């Protein structure tokens, strides 16, 4: 029996399932977790869903995902679940304070699509070719059989839309589009959802994005554009770090540049580095070399160096001669 069939069997025979997704969840993490939870609940399985931000903090769009109102704090998550599912976690540390529960779970179904994922859980469902964790969850639900509740369809669609950059990125296959079409057969307000996901910026954020854009620097030898924001920038603008997640999508629009990088200072002073490539660089490898992870064209890591030192190291990594073909 393959892992998909084993996971389906475990989930269909479970009475209780505990689901978790990664710290600072995006729409793929929350959507895959809440989508699977909605399916399980529709079959009489009791579920509990959480993520390791303490206290839970949800971006405004998350309110549109059914089930988000039932998310529980980490303290209310079972210590040693009989069946636990993790969603969109590239590694165990992405579970933060929920990692001990995963360690103690009897069955641990690990659903993810990050190439850097070492393969975790008693049942790993990890497909680096999948556009999103939601796409893997959709397949799992298909193997489980039965009806897809409308609530689940909305949640999965949210993850599909965002992790494909609105069906733009390389991993968007004909199969991804067929899944999206199947989900859209369900009666949910997709334009309201997508506006909440993409057209909901506060003016404070737009002003801060202006500062970041004005600071953008080009590094021709690395075919790169980059910018940064410090804690002082965020504080002065009155903007939370999580609110700046889409900044990279603005920077990466620079013409004739392969790599875009955005450096954001964390509260501990270190810089979180988000990198994107148009196709010429393998950023999963670059990020892994700096202790991070991600996909070939979209990855991230944390740097102990300031902006200049971080960029110098990144330029070196990007311009290293690749191994002889
Ligand atoms: Mn994802």
Structure overview:
The protein has 325 residues and is an alpha/beta fold. The protein has 2 domains: 3-198, inorganic pyrophosphatase (n-terminal core); 203-319, Diaminopimelate Epimerase, Chain A, domain 1, CATH 3.10.310. It contains 12 helices and 11 strands. The chain has helices spanning 3-13, 27-42, 99-104, 133-144, 150-163, 174-184, 190-198, 203-214, 231-237, 247-251, 283-289, 307-319, and strands at residues 16-21, 46-50, 83-87, 107-112, 123-126, 217-219, 224-229, 259-265, 271-277, 293-294, 298-303. The strands form 2 sheets. A 6-stranded mixed sheet has the order 6-7-8-9-11-10. A 5-stranded parallel sheet has the order 2-1-3-4-5. Helix 4 (133-144) runs antiparallel to helix 5 (150-163), helix 5 (150-163) runs antiparallel to helix 6 (174-184) and helix 5 packs across helix 7 (190-198). The longest helix is centred in the N-terminal third of the chain and has 16 residues, at 27-42. 45% of the residues are buried. It binds manganese (II) ion.
Provide key terms for this protein:
single chain; 325 residues; alpha/beta; 2 domains; 6-stranded mixed β-sheet; 12 helices; 38% helix; 18% strand; binds manganese (II) ion
